[in-house]
Amino acid sequence: MSPRLDDLHPYPFQKLKALFQGVTPNPALKAVNLSIGEPKHATPALIKDALIHHLDGLSAYPATLGSDTLRMAISQWIARRYGIPAPDASTQIIPVNGSREALFSFAQAMIDTSGSTRPVVISPNPFYQIYEGAALLAGAEPFYVNCLAQNQFQPDWDQVPEEVWQRTQLVFVCSPGNPTGAVASLDDWRRLFALSDRYGFVIASDECYSEIYFGEQRPLGGLEAAHKLGRDDRRLVVFSSLSKRSNVPGLRSGFVAGDAQLLGKFLLYRTYHGCAMSPSIQAASEAGWNDEAHVVENRALYAAKFAAVTPRLAEVMDVSLPDASFYLWAATPISDTEFARRLYAEQHVTVLPGSYLARDAHGINPGANRVRIALVAPLEDCVIAAERIVHFCKNL
């Protein structure tokens, strides 16, 4: 067995299961689970229909690079969404089986362990745990950069010592952030690009929540930021997905786009990795990327839930509307683990302790005394949960 497997941490939901062990929630109350970031809205009919109508694709081996039509649909979507020239569909886009798979495998292909010092992969803190696991299994050392309220939940790059920058090969960024919902500004991107130019690391930009936002201000993307700053996509690769945008987490469909040289090597890796997307899934994905009406409807559903829930919770918790995503990153009046355990026991509402989404770094755990609340349940259930949380907090 690979000794690197022993370096992996339990996933947050394993920790949550252990936290709840021996707890019997109030049987008089309906369960409301707001801990898992799994979309619950209906999958659009156009995507299901496209899948059904292309089941004959199951009779053929898929190409690792995917179909020309799917890559073109993704390229055109990027151009429409971000107002930039369409990426070259033949060299700058690879369809992937969900961004999670691609984020992990990208690190395996990018990290070079042949040198005399151990390479570093930088991650925001709190973070999506795939970043950490990908770094560890690639043989790299994870380095965590705290994202705190005083920095608008953006990474504090001043926490990175020169010696660490010198060994850094890959930096994961997440905008809109999981769990904070914070969106990187153009100035944030300008500084990150300058650091990449100075130290030569690759930027892996996880943008899976980009289409869940409020109002007319769309989250800035990495490729868009590069274009606005008059630079190309050198050492920049972005990851996106249909899961949240189109309510198809089970479709396992996303894309990687950006630096053609890096993606050429990544494609070579993937031809051996055996992760080509089914032709049937490709057809359904193409339908999803080509339609925006269902995305607008999806955003409206989330906006209604945030409008109903956020003011209620703000009565008893330090919480506010995020820049984007479907999470609330709420401060707790007691420890986050005690809050989650007691809330589950007394109110049958499940939230995720923030400390489970972060690591101790620079003297603190930036997730401590916060919980992530995923507003994925129906509006009525989200309101019920909010009212129970208010009641719970008032009676602490």
UniProtKB/TrEMBL annotation:
It comes from the Bacteria. This is Putative 8-amino-7-oxononanoate synthase. Its cofactor is pyridoxal 5'-phosphate. Keywords: Aminotransferase, Transferase. Residues 32-389 form the Aminotransferase class I/classII large domain. It comes from Silvimonas amylolytica. The keyword Transferase applies. InterPro entries: Aminotransferase_I/II_large (IPR004839), DapC_beta/gammaproteobac (IPR019878), LL-DAP_aminotransferase (IPR050881), PyrdxlP-dep_Trfase (IPR015424), PyrdxlP-dep_Trfase_major (IPR015421), PyrdxlP-dep_Trfase_small (IPR015422).
